[in-house]
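Action item from last meeting closed. Structure (259 res):
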């Protein structure tokens, strides 16, 4: 294969990945509590250097060209999203650090716990406090669901205390993860933590705001520019591949006849 086509192919693959991530961020601009992903690309050294085969012969010019680009680690932008007042008593936004804890699946171990910033809550048929979007129970500080009286007014204080009829009915867990950058997205706007991170979780110092939700931490202008930039890079790489393909066809037909 033409080395130029190889380099263009690596650029196309990286650009397509960047475009997918940027498009997903843009598509979730209205998703409550959404945290966008950030991509990075880095220079890929020549194969001889990358594989530690310095003793093999090589071409000096190709060595300077390197091995193209490759996608680096994708990270989440965990910045605080702006708060939007909804007036709904069971909408709760987190101001500052922390995550709600949600029970996902059977069992009682921490492996069934998920974390989220989506505070749109409601009561299910069992009068448990659950997420509106998933129906999964939101846990208290003792890792248990919170059951409320559906006929009584619900007040949620900044520290997570839930009151009804002047009495404490529960306390929403608001947890911190020591390495939030190591959280993995688990679908439905939830995150999953490794057992090591789960063992070191602590109470967060953020505050809860009743009657509000946290908007997606996506800058629409930046997300749009990211999509457009990745699309331009992918188009350029595609044109280069087409050009190299045409040159190879000429080399196999016209140049061969001349020889």
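Sequence:
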């Amino acid at each position: 294969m033409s080395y130029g086509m190889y380099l263009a192919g690596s650029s196309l693959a990286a650009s397509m990945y960047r475009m997918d991530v940027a498009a997903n961020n843009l598509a979730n601009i209205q998703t409550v509590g959404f945290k966008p992903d950030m991509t990075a690309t880095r220079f890929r050294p020549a194969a001889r250097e990358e594989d530690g085969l310095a003793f093999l012969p090589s071409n000096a010019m190709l060595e300077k060209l390197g091995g193209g680009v490759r996608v680096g680690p994708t990270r989440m932008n965990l910045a605080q999203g702006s708060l939007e007042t909804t007036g709904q008593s069971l909408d709760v936004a987190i101001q500052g650090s922390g995550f709600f804890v949600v029970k996902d699946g059977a069992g009682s171990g921490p492996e069934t716990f998920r974390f989220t910033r989506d505070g749109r809550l409601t009561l299910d048929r069992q009068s448990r406090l659950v997420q509106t979007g998933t129906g999964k129970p939101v846990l208290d500080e003792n890792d248990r669901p919170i059951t409320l009286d559906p006929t009584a007014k619900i007040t949620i204080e900044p520290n997570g205390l839930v009151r009804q009829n002047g009495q404490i009915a529960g306390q929403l867990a608001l947890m911190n993860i020591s390495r939030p950058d190591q959280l993995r997205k688990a679908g439905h706007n939830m995150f999953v933590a490794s057992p090591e991170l789960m063992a070191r979780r602590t109470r967060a110092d953020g505050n809860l705001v009743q009657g509000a939700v946290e908007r997606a931490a996506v800058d629409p202008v930046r997300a749009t520019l990211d999509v457009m930039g990745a699309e331009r890079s992918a188009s350029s790489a595609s044109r280069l591949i087409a050009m190299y393909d045409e040159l190879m066809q000429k080399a196999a037909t016209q140049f061969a006849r001349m020889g």
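Note appended to the action item: Helices lie at 3-27, 47-50, 60-65, 195-199, 220-258.
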